[in-house]
Write a structure and sequence with these properties.
8-stranded antiparallel barrel, alpha+beta, 32% strand
């Protein structure tokens, strides 16, 4: 077995590989850029080597720098993680030439599966179900229309070298096919330097389901079930689960066997994933093969008890698989939520900055990849820590929160509680959105397609309105917590004579525009909160004022709240909702009802910076009249350029920023008359 491996990656996946290497008794070498000198993966590894400036194209994806780090450290093997160099055949070739083991598949498999046209042809020859389409070179728009008509509309026009949605168009008729062909060709040439285009049938009601395969260098290949990855936003997976709520055993077996046939056809050896599009009738079609470890691999580990990183290392060491297909049993259900530094209230724009608070829920003691869960499990794969910084240079993923339960509903329930208990402050993040999805009836029913987010949140995400039963639970919890806080306040020392403070039993709780008159009957073990209609809830908790997380029991059902004190109550976050809860005496509530509502400031004549970023260019000047939708300026954040456009017709009266300026969230870029 290898004595030392280098991890050519960063963040949570580097930390994940280090954990398994440590379990196997293998020393680890981390590499890091200037931006990552204090990163968690650097701290966890046995040694670390600096490889350059923050931009990945000057550090993490420079093959020569990684090769030098291997030479300097004496590492015998390299795990590439995902992204960066993980699917770069030149890197695999360089390692082979240097006599260093690549913990991944052979170079030929990476090359064959890296091109969409080549991979589809190989898949067809291996007997894998593929989407009807035309894989040859298409000369012009007329030929594109002819082919599209033969396949049958709707069709997908795609760039062979495409990715991330670039060079992709859906056409529903001849005119759209003609326009889409030229647009895709232009985008592909500009983005990838390769303008080859292919056309295939567009699958309606599509679900994204992938099969995990594991193959060795001795011709053995097994599949470890599937993962449902249909909850996506802009082709970026957000929530994954295993198994899929949609597949039956026959479809699973067919997809698994075809995936293994494809792996064998390209001489695959390592962990890999074959991705499929599955329609509403459970017809499945090959999409692509990812020749690396997937981001969402933990859900497969949770339902199979197989440590995929350990298996990858053993395969790279030339060992045969010790697991047969008959050994693979799918046990229970697993969920993964990707926690991103993206602000859902600002159309998921990236958010950078310091994590002033980072407190994930406690991971289940004793669980580790390779262990079959016997009870509910919480697992959090992360590469950050409290006080650390989310950099603009890399992927905005903070953590992958995973839960396991004996069935799907219990796994969802575990995830709800874990998300509510996850404390993140200092940056914008998508925790509220993840919680909202966990409560969405379509998701809970397992009735989703890849269009779920676009269809269910067409105007974006603007928070959650809690249902009446949940509102009552939160109101009862807030009333009980307020009583604890009031008792604390009565015990303040040094108060003036004749200013004794007593804690009453009657209160009015206001939240989400609702008012609940309640009475509290307390005893040493808790409090019973009674509503005006006679309904009552028993609340018990060990929460004390100052704690930011309250874990309560209401009539035997748990409730987890993130709590922040405000004047006259609390800011409470739970289930994706972020709401102010006021707890007042009846007289205070009567007077509060007479107070005018404070309106937010009018920003309709201002262009505010939607995220921390750098002004790349200003497209207008003072005195210029602009039209609805016209580009005003470009802001760069996390190496992505965002064009800010006019929301309505107007005249520029003042410009407060210039190209090269670094701005914070809500800084005023320009003003209108």
């Amino acid at each position: 077995m290898f004595k030392k491996i280098l991890i050519a990656n960063r963040g949570e996946i580097a930390c994940r590989v280090i954990k398994t290497a440590r379990k196997m008794g293998i020393a680890t070498v981390a590499v890091y850029s200037d931006a990552d000198k204090n990163a968690l993966h650097v701290e966890m590894a046995d040694e670390a080597i600096h490889i350059g400036p923050p931009p990945a194209n000057q550090s993490y994806i420079v093959i020569d720098k990684i090769m030098q780090a291997i030479k300097d450290s004496g590492a015998e093997a390299v795990h590439p993680g995902y992204g960066f160099l993980s699917e770069n055949p030149k890197f695999a070739e360089a390692l082979d030439a240097a006599g260093v083991a690549f913990i991944g598949p052979p170079k030929g498999a990476i090359e064959a599966m890296g091109d969409k046209i080549t991979s589809k042809k190989i898949a067809q020859e291996a007997g894998v179900s593929t989407v009807p389409g035309y894989m040859g070179l298409i000369e012009d728009a007329d030929e594109a229309v002819k082919i599209s008509t033969e396949i049958g509309y709707p069709v997908m026009i795609k760039a062979s070298a495409g990715g991330g949605g670039k060079g992709m168009r859906i056409a529903w008729n001849d005119e759209e096919a003609r326009e889409g062909f030229q647009s895709s060709k232009n985008e592909a040439a500009n983005s990838f330097g390769d303008d080859r285009i292919f056309i295939e049938k567009f699958v309606t009601q599509p679900r994204h389901i992938e099969i995990q395969v594991l193959a060795d260098q001795h011709g053995n290949c097994i599949y470890l079930g599937e993962r449902e990855c249909s909850i996506q936003r802009r082709n970026q997976k957000v929530i994954e689960e295993a198994p899929s709520p949609f597949l039956d055993e026959a479809t699973r077996k067919a997809m698994g066997e075809q995936s293994c046939a494809l792996a064998k056809a390209v001489g695959y050896a390592s962990a890999g994933t074959v991705e499929f599009i599955v329609d509403g009738e459970r017809n499945f079609y090959f999409l692509e093969m990812n020749t690396r470890l997937q981001v969402e691999h933990p859900v497969t580990e949770l339902i199979t008890g197989v440590d995929l990183v350990e298996q990858m290392i053993k395969v790279a060491n030339g060992e045969p698989l010790t697991i047969t297909q008959d050994d693979v049993k799918l046990n229970g259900w697993a969920m993964e939520s990707r926690l991103y530094a993206e602000d859902p209230y600002r159309n998921f724009l990236p958010s950078i900055g310091r994590l002033t608070r980072y407190r994930p829920p406690a991971e289940t003691a004793g669980y580790a990849p390779g262990v079959v869960p016997g009870a509910a499990v919480i697992r959090n794969d992360t590469g950050v820590y409290e006080g650390g910084e989310i950099s603009m240079f890399y992927d905005p993923m903070i953590a992958k929160l995973c839960t396991w339960g004996p069935d799907r509903l219990s796994a969802i329930e575990e995830m709800r509680g874990a998300l509510d208990a996850f404390e993140v402050e200092g940056i914008g993040h998508n925790l509220p959105f993840l919680s909202a999805v966990m409560d969405h009836e379509k998701f809970v029913a397992g009735n989703m397609t890849t269009a779920f987010i676009a269809e269910e949140y067409p105007e974006g995400f603007d928070g959650v309105e809690l249902a009446e039963p949940v509102l009552r639970r939160v109101a009862a919890a807030a009333a009980a917590m307020n009583r604890v806080a009031e008792i604390r306040r009565t015990r303040v020392s040094g108060r003036m004579d004749n200013h004794e403070r007593t804690v009453g039993t009657d209160w009015v709780v206001t939240l989400q525009g609702r008012h609940y008159a309640v009475g509290i009957a307390a005893d040493p073990k808790g409090a019973t909160v009674q509503f005006a209609d006679g309904a009552a809830l028993r609340v018990t908790s060990d929460w004390t004022p100052g704690q930011t997380l309250a874990v309560l029991d209401l009539d035997g059902a748990p409730l987890t709240l993130k709590v922040e004190p405000i004047t006259g109550g609390f800011r409470i976050r739970t289930g994706g909702a972020d709401t102010k809860v006021h707890v007042r005496t009846p007289r205070q509530a009567e007077l509060a009802a007479l107070m005018p509502e404070k309106l937010p400031p009018d920003t309709s004549k201002l262009l505010l910076c939607p995220m921390p970023g750098l002004i790349v260019k200003i497209d207008v000047e003072v005195g210029q009249e602009v039209q609805d939708g016209q580009a005003l300026c470009t802001v760069e954040a996390m190496k992505m350029e965002n064009i800010l456009r006019a929301e309505k017709k107007g005249v520029i009266s003042k410009i407060n920023a210039a190209a090269g300026d670094s701005l914070a969230v809500d800084d005023v870029i320009m003003e209108f008359e």
